[in-house]
Design brief:
Layout lengths: L11 H13 L5 E8 L9 E2 L3 H9 L5 H9 L5 H7 L7 E4 L5 E2 L6 E6 H6 L1 H25 L3 E4 L8 H14 L3 E2 L2 H7 L9 H5 L4 H11 L4 E4 L5 H18 L7 E5 L4 H14 L6 E4 L5 H9 L6 E4 L1 H4 L9 E9 L5 E3 L16 E8 L5 E8 L10 E4 L7 E4 L4 E5 L2 E5 L2 E2 L6 H13 L3 H4 L8 E4 L1 H15 L2
Parallel strand pairs: 6-7, 6-11, 8-9, 9-10, 10-11, 15-21
Antiparallel strand pairs: 1-5, 1-12, 2-4, 3-5, 3-19, 12-13, 14-15, 14-18, 16-17, 19-20
Helix pairs in contact: 2-6, 6-7, 6-13, 7-15, 10-11, 11-12
């Protein structure tokens, strides 16, 4: 997890295309690529951007070491003049991005790269790898946290993640999405986020009896005493022994804070209700009831509906792997090529599927908020040279069904440009916030969504519209291509 040279973390065809540009094209030709996604993950109404800090580290360290060039030479497909060019390769372009923790929607650029074509081509794979993974896990975490309705969610999926990087950067993303802590100690160290945990069944089983195991743990960690009560019998043994230990702590004058039980098996709704009654009757109404056991947002939501008395949740496998939606689906497409006069010639990719037709040109994104509520009304993708006046009416229309229109009256809306500069002429101009600050920003972002957009099933989708100028540019290109 140290910052490292990931230059060869790329698909081979990026390098073969680079050699093709080097041999046959002006490899200094400046182009624009957009990284975006076509559909919200998990059938949701939004996604959360994450991973930008790692993209920045990747680009900062983008260089071919001698061993890299030697390896590429050994493949027998790269010529000496191209390999020599790679010796001094550096990224010299511009990058714009939606900040981490931001809400984002389909078909709008998450990251925009403006650079010589060889540079812009090379960074594709790594950018998508990093952004796709962390954005997926951050989005999943936000859904899990939403289902918990204010209860704390702890991420503890490291042992089930697809490798060390997925576990550690997945924990980072989960914190951005709203988790209150992670079991991953390395993530805690790297990203300065809270680490939390209890104990395993093996702790109980290693002692002569359950009470002794609980008592020993309480003596060691009186200020973080969360006891796992389902090793033998939750209601007949586990909870009564936990209550016995809590009583002894109270009688000894030990302040009871951050204490309670954890359920890891069985009918969590039934057991938590029984546990709550037992704890309350024993004089421990503030004892935490934590639960784990293959939880996800749908099960947590169901348990809430059933009246489960759980106030803290540990979520592992389904969160760190985003089990029901294991990929984010981000893509990276050419949007424009710079002309000799310094302006950009828009480019478009066609498809029989209208949703896969790309948006051409040098673009930015404005978020449109309803002024009275502060909630998101729509996103507007436009060309970078366009300006808008909040004191004038704003016409929005669906780019796929343009007869569907909404006219916002002057003074009833506010606009916010979403993309920020990250690299200028190869130099980083953006300071990544700390993860916990990104988490706080993400919570503020989520508050700008209507509850209907955040619901887990069949959410209301936020419209992503095109400006009239961008729409006309797109239609003109489509008409021109149809004549070819």
């Amino acid at each position: 997890m140290d910052r490292q040279n990931l230059t060869l973390m790329t698909d081979l065809y990026e390098l073969t295309m680079m050699q093709g540009y080097f041999k046959n094209n002006d490899h200094n030709e400046t182009v624009i690529f957009d990284a975006f996604f076509r559909n919200n993950p998990m059938g949701g109404g939004y996604a959360i951007s994450a991973g930008l800090e790692q993209v920045i580290d990747y680009i900062k360290n983008l260089r071919f070491e001698k061993e890299d060039i030697d390896y590429l030479g050994s493949l027998g497909i790269f010529e000496e003049d191209f390999l020599e060019y790679l010796n001094n390769f550096r990224f010299t372009g511009d990058v714009y991005a939606i900040p981490e923790g931001s809400i984002m929607f389909p078909r709008e650029p998450m990251i925009k790269v403006i650079a010589p074509i060889m540079q812009a081509q090379l960074v594709e794979t790594a950018i998508l790898n990093i952004i796709n993974h962390q954005s997926l896990i951050a989005t999943k975490a936000s859904r899990v946290c939403f289902a918990a309705r204010g209860d704390g969610i702890m991420e503890f999926g490291l042992r089930r993640a697809q490798g060390p990087d997925a576990g550690t950067y997945g924990a980072r993303a989960a914190m951005i999405g709203g988790c209150i802590g992670t079991s991953n100690v390395l993530a805690g160290q790297l990203f300065d986020v809270p680490v939390k945990g209890t104990h395993a069944h093996s702790w109980i089983m290693s002692f002569p009896d359950e009470y002794t195991a609980f008592k020993t743990y309480a003596d060691l960690y009186p200020n973080a005493c969360l006891l796992l009560v389902d090793t033998y019998d939750t209601l007949k043994s586990g909870i009564p022994n936990a209550i016995r230990v809590f009583k002894e702590m109270r009688e000894a004058g030990i302040p009871l804070a951050n204490y309670g039980i954890r359920l890891d098996s069985g009918d969590l709704a039934y057991l938590s209700k029984k546990a709550r009654k037992m704890l309350d009757a024993a004089g421990f109404p503030d004892a935490i009831i934590s639960a784990s056991n293959d939880l996800d947002e749908y099960l947590i939501d169901s348990l809430k509906v059933q009246g489960a008395q759980i106030t803290s949740w540990g979520v592992g496998t389904h969160l760190i792997t985003s089990k029901d939606c294991p990929s984010f689906g981000g893509v990276y497409k050419l949007a424009a090529v710079m002309k000799p006069d310094g302006t950009f010639l828009p480019k478009i990719k066609l498809s029989e599927n209208s949703e896969k037709v790309t948006n051409p040109g040098n673009k930015t994104i404005y978020r449109v908020y309803e002024k009275e509520s502060g909630k998101v009304k729509a996103d507007l993708i436009c060309l970078v040279d366009e300006t808008f006046d909040e004191n004038q009416p704003l016409l929005l229309f669906d780019p796929l069904e343009p007869w569907k229109k909404t006219k916002l009256a002057a003074g009833t809306y506010t606009l916010r440009e979403m993309m920020v500069p990250v690299f200028k002429n190869g130099e980083c101009v953006y300071q990544s916030p700390k993860v916990m600050d990104i988490r706080e920003y993400c919570q503020q972002e989520l508050e700008t969504l209507w509850p209907e957009t955040r619901r887990l099933v069949n959410p209301h989708k936020v419209y992503v519209d095109l400006s009239k100028k961008l729409y006309d540019t797109k239609i003109e290109l489509l008409d021109r291509m149809s004549e070819v």
